[in-house]
Amino acid sequence: MQPPDKKDENSFSRQVGEKAQRKLKALHNDKRSVWFGIGMFGMVGWSVAVPTLLGAALGMGMDKKYPESFSWTLSFLILGLFAGCLIAWHWITKEHNEMNQDKDE
User: Fold this and answer.
1) Which of 22, 31, 53, 56 has its CA 20 to 30 A from that of 83?
2) Which segments of the chain have a pLDDT < 50?
């Protein structure tokens, strides 16, 4: 068996030190609790549901006022769903970037 290289020892020590720092930071970080996760889950759900329902309501009004061969309700429902997904994607990306920024510090 060969003796380990000094470079390998330094790399391993650095990795262990980084993991220890992350664990200590996680212990002291009260902001990221189970309630934070549940709140984020709810925020993503509402950010998709509200625009979808608003789109459906707008489409139903358009169907009554301006009847066409296509369904305004379905069109605005899909548009609202797409907008809600974009909003949810924005929230998730923002939180992901904040979490990664915390790891880098």
Assistant:
1) 31
2) none
